Amino acid sequence: MGRQLISTVLCTTFLLLGVGASFAKKKAEKAVQERFEATISPAFSSDNSVSIAIQEFSTDEEVQGLAQAFARGREDSLEKALAKIKKGYFRLGAGDTMPLLIVESSSEGAVRRLNILGWAPTVFGGVGDTQVSIGHRGYPYTCIQLEVDEKGNGTGLLVPFANVVFNQQGRMVIKPMSRTPARLVNVRWEK
Predict the structure, then answer these.
(1) Pairing label, strands 172-176, 182-190
(2) Which residue has the higher pLDDT, 186 or 46?
(3) Which of 28, 95, 171, 176 has the most CB atoms lying inside 10 A of its own CB?
(4) Residue at 6 is within a domain
(5) Three-state secondary structure call for residue 110
(6) Which of 40-49, 56-65, 144-153 shows the lowest per-residue confidence on average (mean pLDDT)?
(7) Which of 5-19, 29-43, 88-102 has the lowest mean pLDDT?
(8) Are 184 and 155 in contact (CB under 8 A)?
(9) CB 96: neighbour CB atoms within 10 A?
């Protein structure tokens, strides 16, 4: 009876230590630094909103590393490198919340430009409460470009399905599935 009790206590202790260690290994979620809302024009569905939450901005070194990954193994290597990155998240309408992979910010005078790349969603909110599943084989990314003034108001472009390559100079080139990007209107910075 004593051995059974000691065995049970030891097993319980190791189990609790293991569970505690697995919780400790999880990364703490980064705080949102900036949040933007916009409206898609023309609308894809009854909910034509775009929500963007930026937790971290991409560094030049990170983007250069992605260009090198692409040079080594083309799209497969780039996709593997991007799978390890999360800079925030976005949501199109009532669709799935998707991770942001690259977030670049630059200023030109009073205008700030944000170039954002995320995984393309496969489910969008449809008319009413319906969900629409959309395939995007070969175009796994969503690209968002915002131009905002010093108050955070502006416009933008949305390419819901795109592929990404890097040219010989190491610059990212967007290859959209559709020739015409959607316009983003009523872009506004949210506190």
Answers:
(1) unpaired
(2) 186
(3) 95
(4) no
(5) coil
(6) 40-49
(7) 5-19
(8) yes
(9) 17
- Alpha-carbon 161 to chain mean position: 13
Residue 13 inside a domain? The answer is no
pLDDT at 85: 85
Question: Rounded to an integer, what is the distance from CA 67 to the centroid of its chain?
Answer: 18
Domain that holds residue 40: 29-190
Residue 159: inside a domain: yes
| b/e code 147-186 from CB counts within 10 Å (16+ = b) | ebeeebebebebbbbbbbebeeeeebeeebeeeebbebee
pLDDT at 133: 47
| 166-191 average pLDDT score | 85
Query: Which two tokens mark 116?
Result: 């954002």
Rounded to two decimals, what is the model's pTM? 0.76
Please write down the long-range contacts of 64-69, taking CB distance under 8 Å and 24 or more positions apart: 64/170, 66/102, 66/166, 66/172, 67/166, 67/170, 67/171, 67/172, 68/170
